[in-house]
């Protein structure tokens, strides 16, 4: 006559399916009470009420025919909802419960509105409606229950008395109580299982987040973000875009690798890569790869601020790296590394092919094209501490960055000689009002960036500079006080 509550079970298994893609593989085994078993329990109780009422003379004898219907309907409903095309119908459980309400209303009308059996059937039906579909299902069930009851009463008429014998009343009450207790027990079990499922799903979600962050270390943050937000599919696809391409390597690294132990060399290289990566991410660069002591970075994908701004950000990053390298070099000297390490850089701007390259089971997000080759060539031609850029890059940043003409070079893939330029510095930092000052000799190095110095730091820096000046005037060979980023060495 009604379906047992299973919404909690469905919700939990749906959560499991969301995590695993399969209902059978849900993270928690939910104690089931399917609609089939619920109907068998409810309709068997109804059949017992009919038999008791007929035997005690309160119901008509022809109602015994309903016993067969009450015992067979749960099986018919199960076949209809699980074995036919109706199993794919939306909200099939709620629809079948409406049918149960109509059947229950017709039964109440056929027994002539006898009080306690009628109330028993109504309670079981309304209890099921509330659990399965909430208030909306309860209101809908009430309407169809009332309609079924009214139709049956109009045909058979009400009973002579609304009172039922004691045995029939007790049987109806016990049947109703048993149904409610059993369904409530399963609902409680399902609720506990659902909470456990939610806990496991939350744990799996946290593990997935932790794993995704670990995997993100192998991808540029911009690429990782676009993949995990769904903006980009992980498949073999490429596109043509105008990018600013950056290459750099360390001059003198080969000689240093012959002098240092592999462990110390690895630590130095990782420290260098970490510092340079922080600078690159500050300017929005997409780190493509590290090869030996070389770094490849590009601007303009997966996010772009426009060709001019991308080129400016790329050159600004290179200038910042050059300044940062001076600080790092002094730190390395203090650690006993005497080999002078200089960074050299090359930048080219133009159309490249960017996207996923490789195989379906192993991809690499990178760029190819002649502009990549040009940037690599510029890097190899640069002197230590020098930044060489192509003409296309120069045309985009010349109004804000001072550059020096370096002539032309011949590059494979280019039909004509390529004009190249050397980056001097930001125009705002040139002349008497420049914000930084740098000076370096054997035994002395100074890098001053007045824009980054606070008032509190200014006094201590002035003291260090005055002390250094006094020592130099006296010809004292004592080591000068060490400082970085605005302090004297």
TrEMBL record:
Highest taxon, organism lineage: Bacteria
Pfam families in alphabetical order: Guanylate_cyc, MASE2
Protein's UniProt name: Adenylate cyclase
Naturally occurring in which organism (per UniProt): Marinobacter salinus
GO molecular function: adenylate cyclase activity
Listed CDD domains: CHD
InterPro entries in UniProt: A/G_cyclase, Adenylyl/Guanylyl_Cyclase_3/4, MASE2, Nucleotide_cyclase
PANTHER family according to UniProt: ADENYLATE CYCLASE, TERMINAL-DIFFERENTIATION SPECIFIC-RELATED, BLL7624 PROTEIN
SUPFAM superfamilies cross-referenced by the UniProt entry: Nucleotide cyclase
Keywords, comma-separated and alphabetical: Membrane, Transmembrane, Transmembrane helix
SMART domains (UniProt xref): CYCc
BP terms from Gene Ontology: cAMP biosynthetic process; intracellular signal transduction
Domain Guanylate cyclase: 244-379
Ranges annotated as spanning the membrane: 40-56, 62-80, 101-126, 138-159, 166-186
């Amino acid at each position: 006559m009604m379906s047992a509550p299973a919404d909690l079970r469905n919700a939990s298994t749906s959560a499991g399916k969301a995590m695993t893609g399969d209902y059978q593989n849900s993270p928690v085994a939910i104690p089931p009470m399917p609609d089939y078993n619920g109907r068998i329990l409810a309709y068997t109780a109804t059949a017992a009420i009919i038999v008791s009422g007929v035997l005690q003379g309160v119901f008509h004898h022809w109602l015994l025919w309903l016993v067969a219907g009450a015992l067979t309907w749960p099986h018919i409903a199960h076949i209809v909802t699980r074995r036919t095309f109706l199993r794919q119908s939306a909200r099939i459980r709620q629809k079948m419960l409406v049918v149960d309400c109509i059947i229950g209303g017709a039964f109440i009308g056929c027994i002539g509105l006898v009080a306690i059996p009628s109330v028993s059937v109504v309670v079981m039906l309304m209890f099921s409606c509330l659990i399965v579909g909430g208030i909306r299902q309860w209101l809908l069930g009430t309407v169809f229950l009332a309609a079924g009851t009214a139709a049956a009463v109009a045909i058979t008429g009400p009973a002579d008395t609304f009172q039922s014998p004691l045995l029939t009343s007790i049987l109806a009450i016990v049947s109703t109580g048993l149904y409610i207790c059993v369904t409530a027990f399963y609902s409680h079990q399902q609720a506990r299982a659902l909470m456990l499922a939610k806990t496991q799903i939350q744990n799996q979600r946290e593990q997935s987040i932790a794993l995704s962050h670990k995997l993100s270390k192998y991808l540029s943050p911009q690429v990782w973000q676009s993949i995990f937000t769904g903006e980009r599919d992980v498949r073999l696809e490429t596109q043509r875009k105008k990018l600013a391409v950056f290459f750099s390597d360390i001059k003198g690294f080969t000689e240093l690798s012959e002098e240092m132990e592999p462990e110390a060399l690895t630590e130095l290289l990782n420290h260098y890569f970490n510092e340079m990566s922080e600078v690159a991410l500050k300017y929005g660069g997409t780190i493509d790869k590290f090869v030996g002591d070389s770094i490849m970075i590009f601007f303009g994908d997966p996010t772009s601020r426009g060709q001019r701004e991308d080129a400016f950000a790329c050159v600004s990053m290179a200038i910042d790296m050059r300044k940062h390298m001076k600080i790092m070099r002094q730190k390395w000297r203090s650690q006993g590394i005497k080999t002078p390490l200089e960074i050299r850089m090359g930048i080219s701007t133009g159309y490249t092919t960017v996207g996923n390259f490789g195989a379906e089971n192993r991809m690499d997000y990178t760029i190819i094209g002649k502009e990549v080759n040009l940037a690599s060539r510029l890097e190899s031609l640069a002197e230590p501490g020098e930044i060489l850029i192509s003409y296309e890059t120069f045309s985009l940043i010349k109004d804000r960055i001072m550059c020096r003409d370096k002539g032309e070079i011949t590059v494979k893939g280019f039909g004509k000689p390529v004009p190249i330029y050397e980056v001097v510095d930001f125009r705002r930092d040139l002349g008497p009002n420049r914000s930084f000052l740098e000076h370096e000799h054997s035994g002395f190095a100074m890098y001053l960036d007045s824009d980054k110095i606070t008032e509190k730091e200014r006094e201590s820096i002035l003291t260090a500079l005055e002390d250094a000046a006094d020592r130099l005037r006296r010809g004292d060979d004592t080591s000068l006080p060490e400082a970085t980023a605005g302090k004297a060495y």
